[in-house]
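The following block was generated as part of the benchmark described in Methods. Ligand: flavin-adenine dinucleotide.
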Amino acid sequence: MRTQVAIIGGGPSGLLLSQLLHSAGIESVVLERRSRDYVLSRIRAGVLETGLVDLMHEAGVGDRMEREGFVHDGTLLANGNEQFRIDFKALTGRHVMVYGQTEVTRDLYEARDAAGGTVIHECRGVKPHDLDTAAPFVTFLHDGKVNRLDCDFVAGCDGYHGPSRQEIPTAERTEYEKTYPFGWLGVLSETPPVADELIYANSERGFALCSMRNDSLSRYYIQCDLSDSPDDWTDDMFWDELKRRIPEEAADRLVTGPSIEKSIAPLRSFVCEPMRWGRLFLCGDAAHIVPPTGAKGLNTAASDVHYLFNALRHFYHDRDDEGLEKYSETALARIWKTERFSWWFSSLMHRYPDQSGFDLRMQQAELAFLRDNEAAQKAMAESYVGLPY
Ligand SMILES: Cc1cc2nc3c(=O)[nH]c(=O)nc-3n(C[C@H](O)[C@H](O)[C@H](O)COP(=O)(O)OP(=O)(O)OC[C@H]3O[C@@H](n4cnc5c(N)ncnc54)[C@H](O)[C@@H]3O)c2cc1C
C-alpha cells in the first residue's frame, strides 16, 4: 500500500488530521490497534475550545456538534460553601462547547466512511521504519498478514502508550514529567446536571468537579487516592462524598442515580521534546499529557493537528516545508503554556497529602484573589477558552 501520510492511531487526533487532509486533497491511511466500538466506548473529554470547534467545522463535521452541543459562557468555582463565577464571554468575548469526545470521534468516523477514507482497525505490531529518510514506511499485522504502508510522512497520533514516540532516539528525546499524588474517580450517570455550567470545587475533603454531556447525562469526579479502585466505591458512597465536597445549595439540588460508567484516572503532566524526528510528527497524547483540570487534553491534541495539517498543506500545495521544519517548535510553544494552565489550576483546586498550613493559606489567598480581581479572572478565562493558535 502507498499513501501520502500514514497516521498511527485512530483516536481524535488521528481522525481529525485524516479528515482535514482529505478536505485539502491529501491522502492518508489511519492504522488503529483497537476495534471501532472500543474506541467509541472510551469516556474521556467533553469541553471543546473554540479552536477545536472551528477545526471540526473546517473538517466538515461541525453540524451535529452545533445542534447537540452546549455553549458555556462561564464556569463556577467553589471554595467550601462559597461560589463565584468566571464569565468567559464578558472577559474574553468567547465561550467553550460541551460536546463529548465520544461524539467528536463518532462524527469523524462517519465523515471518514462517507469520504471513502481508509481506517484499518485491529492492527497489531505497528512499526514505523526509515523515518530519517525521504521514504519512510510502516509495517503492521492485520488479518493474519504482515502489511507494508509506504508514505511521505508518518503522524504519530497513538496516545501516551503508543509506539511512535519511542522511535525518537533516546539521545535526542527529552521527557518532562510530573505525577500528582492523587487520581480522579469519575462517574457517568443518566441524571440531569446539577448546574447549567461546570462547578470546580475545592473543599477540605478534596477536589470535586460537576460536569455534563447533555441535559440528561452528567459526569462527576472526585479526587481520590491513587491506591483506590472503582470497585471500592459503591454509587451511594460516591454520591455522599460528592455532596460533602460541593456547596450545600448544589448538594441539595443534586439528582443522583445509578452510574453507567465508573473509572479512575491518575493525574500527570508530561511533555516530550522534540515532537518531530525526521519524517515522524507526534500529535496529541503521544507527545504530551495534562491533568484533566481545565479540560485541556483533547484541546491540545487539536492544536497540534492544526499546526501539522497546515504544515502538510503548505508542503503539498506550495512546496513550502517551513511549517514542517518548525512544527515541533510551534506546537510546543503553545503546549507549554497549556501545561502551565493545567498545572496551575490543578494546584489551586486539589488538596495535597503533604500540604503545609502555609501552602493551604496560599491556595486560599489565590482563590480569594481570583474571586476579587478581574485581571486574574481574565488571565484564567483566556486560557480556559483556549489560547490562540
Ligand atoms: C481516562 C481519561 C480521561 C480523560 N478525561 C479528559 C477530560 O475530562 N478532559 C480532557 O480535555 N481530556 C481528557 N482526557 C484526555 C483526552 O481524552 C486526550 O487528550 C485525547 O484522547 C487525546 O487524543 P489522541 O487522539 O491524541 O490520543 P488517544 O485518544 O489516546 O488516541 C490514540 C489512539 O491510538 C491508538 N493506539 C495506541 N497504540 C497503538 C498502536 N500500537 N497501533 C495503532 N494504534 C494505537 C489507541 O487505541 C487510540 O485509539 C482524558 C484521558 C483519559 C485517558
